[in-house]
Amino acid sequence: MVLGGLVISTTAIIMALSSDAYAQSATPGQKEIIREQVNPQTEDALKPWLGGDWQIGVLGRVSSNPYRGADNTDLTGLPMLAYDAERLHVGIDGINAKVWENKFGSVSLLGNLRMEPFDPDDSPYLKGLEDRDMAFEAGLGGSLRLWRGEVKASYLTDLNDAYGGHEIDVGYYIPTNWDRFNFNIGGGVTWQSEELVDYNVGVKRSEARSDRGFYAPDAAFVPHLDFSVIYPVTESFAVIGTSDVRFLPDEYTDSSIIEDDYVISAGLVLVYTF
């Protein structure tokens, strides 16, 4: 029961990491593969949905900031609350309902919250840009067991017209363990529509100035590498760490408001399950 609950804290820290929407740090596939690594299986038809656990805890995150003139690193601390069962996850980081599965794969309905990519007050080069709205997203996720790990794919679309676009991610993840440590290693590539890239790094003609040129980007492919580790300290308490690297393509770095071509993030979660 406890290990099944621990993974939700990982998804909670992933939610914090994903608050940097310029390179959505955790994909739905990454979240799900970590959950599957520790969630118990059950033969009871109701327990996959209703036999989950509640978790409370705290998370911390540090991430590099690629925006020109902004602080080099962002520090975040957040409380967390979530419910997680074998086939249903509901939390502040989103919703994942596994509507179909067999021994080879699964299909899920997804709900996601994408935070604003930046605050115009964070840098003089961002000041005067249009405020971005938080995006509510929905979509589908799928998995296919292959070799030692799983191929994960997801599709998300904007519901409230915050950016009016789409995102597709495909990744491969290998769970493993050593002693009491549970590891998850993987990576993949995220395709973002031109509307989503514009939401993150675009500059309108009316916002252009001598040190900030007009920029209307194309769609982009963003490669990523991901790692996480889970350590159960007791039956009810665990420590979880995550790290990832996002490699920003030309569609990002050609924008005058971006100065780095990568984003590195690391996080730590303390979680109690009941």
UniProtKB/TrEMBL annotation:
It comes from the Bacteria. The keyword Nucleus does not apply. Its main location: membrane. Residues 1-23 form the signal peptide. InterPro entries: MipA. GO terms for biological process: peptidoglycan biosynthetic process. It is found in: Cell outer membrane. Transmembrane segments: none annotated. Pfam families: MipA. Belongs to the MipA/OmpV family. This is MipA/OmpV family protein.
